[in-house]
């Protein structure tokens, strides 16, 4: 399964000179103070994410630059300059102040991707309150759990979503205000008794606001994790994280002034805030926001229509694009794309190679977590790409493979626990109301990520699997990613999920679940062929002993394969927390 290295491009041939053109030099000398100096800080002292992303640009030519291009699901288009974003977020900060919301209070937002969502996020941060975004596809229980756990005082939502969760609202004693956004009057009779109208409050509020003098360690955003391995945890971040968003937006996403940037993640997940709000706008780029969901055809046409240059998406979407086939890309002009990145799950090497074929460039994988707040390991535009590798650590942060029991750093080529040396700017400050769980993540001077990986001799990191998903078969530790990547090289396979199935002799055996591409049907001969195919690609001990076909694999709403659910279903065990499970 060795894929050839994709050699770094000739920099003089690139459409833009990469921001990080000397990785080794930056690793050797970089200091976070230099990033702090590139940012402004609040005029009276302190640091506030909203100010760095929006208001500081008003002093420059970016004041009248388009910050946001919004396309609604019905094809509506709206554009907002940085100045308009500043005014609108000031209005919302005044709205919260008028409602008595104080610094540190939790304000949750449960809405589709509307421009107003972004105004509300910045307004909340300007007020000094903590914003908690919720994914708009959640049902009542996940919304209740998160509002209850966080003690949210305000819920901002839309008439249809309010209707969906109406039964849980009276069960939340700490929730004081429900603010309803009725985008362009889409809904009649939008307000229920006691609700506040976002539009009315905004119309009455002033567009001037004195931003709360937040300090670097004041809380800014809280995000519940994806729930891939268990119950979602409320990771709380502070304003200092903006240093990491800005720096990695520069280095890994290579954001520049002239870019039209599109992040496909929903702000209900951390990628949609760190890289769908903070990184692009602190870097002064123009950002496309698309309200609708996945559609290969629609996505390609958006890239074409808005001439998207930098694109940040996820393996699950890339696999769907691969499934839609190369002909789908060819119907559009996607030549504006100059840099493509992926995060959220391991990116199979096959997908990286596919990218070079259809987009004429590598897809740049990077690694991070809700807890890390921003990218920590990445492939950069001016560096060789090794398909299947997450890349190398960002400047200014130490990432290593350690022995979790001793804290010792393991030699290159050895699988171990992926760990980060605290602190770093985006480091989570706590799991809300769960101090014991927070403390359990720090051992022997390292933050233990819960992922297994190894580093090669040149410092590239290779994902093996989540610690919980690693399979112990006849004394070998097998990472599901290796097996899944081999299976999806077969032309019939769209997706694969691999688990360890308990076995009296081997302890566990490798079992794979695959979903097929359009045009292929499950059959015994195909199963046999896949078994043979995997045995050719993988060592005998690693190749799956059993393969089952599924129409689709269970995934979180953020698109991650839930192996724990495959396993529970296989073994007839309770499914555990499924609040983030995507609908079939
Ligand atoms: P939970 O912690 O609730 O089980 P989760 O870990 O999926 O959910 P996130 O913080 O959204 O929640 O995801 C981070 C995890 O996603 C990482 O720890 C890793 O397992 C996986 N991941 C993210 N990016 C990559 C990548 N580029 N390669 C491999 N795995 C990745
Ligand atoms: Mg996790």
Describe this structure in words.
With 584 residues, the protein is α/β, with parallel strands linked by helices. Helices cover 29% and strands 22% of the residues. The strands form five sheets. Strands 1, 2, 10, 11, 12, 13, 14, 15, 16, 17, 18, 20, 21 and 22 form a 14-stranded mixed sheet that branches. A five-stranded parallel sheet has the order 4-3-5-6-7, with helices on both faces. β26, α17 and β27 form a beta-alpha-beta unit. The model has no long low-confidence stretch (mean pLDDT 96). Bound molecules: adenosine-5'-triphosphate and magnesium ion. Residues 225, 369, 450 line the site of magnesium ion.
Fill in the keyword field for this structure.
584 residues, alpha/beta, 14-stranded mixed sheet, 5-stranded parallel sheet, 18 helices, binds adenosine-5'-triphosphate, binds magnesium ion
What is the alpha-carbon Rg in Å?
23 Å
The ligands bound in this entry are: adenosine-5'-triphosphate, magnesium ion
Mean pLDDT: 96
Q: Quote the distance from N terminus to C terminus.
A: 32 Å
Tell me how many strands there are.
Answer: 27
How large a portion of the residues is in β-strands, by DSSP E? 15-25%
Which word captures the global form?
globular
Number of helices: 18
Q: By helix and strand content, what is the structural category?
A: alpha/beta
């Amino acid at each position: 399964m060795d894929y050839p290295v994709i050699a770094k491009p000739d920099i003089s041939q690139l459409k833009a000179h990469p921001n990080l053109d000397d990785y080794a030099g930056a690793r050797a000398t970089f200091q976070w103070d230099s990033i702090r100096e590139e940012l402004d800080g609040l005029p009276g002292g302190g640091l506030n994410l909203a100010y760095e992303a929006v208001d500081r640009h008003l002093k420059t030519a970016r004041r009248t630059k388009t910050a946001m291009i919004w396309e609604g699901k019905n094809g509506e288009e709206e554009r907002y300059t940085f100045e308009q974003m500043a005014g609108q977020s000031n209005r919302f900060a005044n709205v919260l102040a008028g409602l008595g919301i104080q610094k540190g209070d939790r304000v949750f937002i449960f809405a589709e991707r509307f421009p107003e969502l972004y105004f509300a996020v910045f307004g909340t941060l300007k007020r000094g309150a903590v914003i908690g975004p919720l994914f708009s596809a959640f049902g009542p229980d996940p919304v209740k759990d998160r509002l209850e756990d966080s003690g949210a005082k305000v819920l901002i939502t839309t008439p249809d979503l309010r209707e969906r969760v109406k039964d849980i609202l009276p069960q939340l004693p700490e929730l004081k205000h429900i603010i309803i956004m009725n985008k362009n009057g889409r809904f009649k009779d939008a307000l229920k008794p006691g609700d506040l109208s976002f539009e009315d409050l905004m119309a009455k509020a002033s567009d001037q606001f004195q931003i709360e003098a937040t300090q670097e360690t004041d809380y800014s955003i809280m995000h519940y994790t994806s729930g891939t391995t268990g119950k979602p945890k409320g990771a709380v971040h502070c304003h200092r994280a903006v240093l990491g968003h800005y720096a990695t937006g520069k280095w890994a996403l290579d954001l520049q002034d002239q870019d039209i940037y599109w992040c496909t993640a929903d702000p209900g997940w951390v990628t949609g805030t760190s890289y769908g709000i903070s990184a692009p706008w602190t870097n002064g780029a123009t950002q496309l926001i698309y309200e609708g969901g996945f559609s290969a055809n629609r996505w390609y046409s958006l890239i074409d229509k808005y001439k998207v240059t930098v694109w940040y998406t996820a393996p699950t979407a890339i696999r769907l694009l691969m499934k839609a086939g190369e002909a789908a890309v060819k119907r559009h002009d996607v030549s504006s794309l100059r840099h493509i990145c992926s995060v959220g799950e391991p990116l199979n090497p096959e997908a990286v190679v596919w990218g070079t074929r259809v987009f004429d460039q590598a897809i740049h994988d990077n690694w991070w977590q809700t807890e890390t707040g921003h990218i920590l390991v990445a492939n950069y535009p001016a560096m060789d790409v090794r398909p299947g590798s997450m890349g190398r650590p960002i400047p200014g942060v130490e990432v290593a493979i350690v022995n979790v029991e001793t804290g010792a750093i393991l030699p290159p080529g050895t699988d171990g626990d992926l760990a980060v040396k605290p602190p770093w700017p985006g480091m989570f400050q706590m799991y809300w109301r769960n101090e014991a769980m927070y403390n359990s993540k720090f051992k022997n001077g390292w933050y233990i990520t819960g992922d297994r990986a190894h580093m090669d001799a040149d410092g590239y990191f290779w994902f093996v699997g989540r610690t919980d998903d690693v399979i112990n078969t006849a004394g070998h530790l097998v990472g599901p990613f290796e097996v899944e990547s081999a299976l999806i090289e077969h032309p019939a396979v769209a997706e694969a999920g691999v688990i360890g199935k308990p076995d009296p002799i081997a302890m566990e055996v490798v079992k794979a679940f695959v979903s097929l591409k359009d045009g292929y049907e499950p059959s015994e001969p195909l199963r046999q062929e896949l078994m043979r195919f995997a045995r050719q690609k993988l060592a005998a001990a690693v190749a799956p002993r059993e393969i089952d076909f599924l129409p689709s694999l269970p995934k979180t709403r953020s698109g991650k394969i839930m192996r724990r659910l495959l396993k529970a279903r296989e073994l007839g065990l309770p499914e555990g927390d499924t609040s983030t499970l995507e609908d079939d």
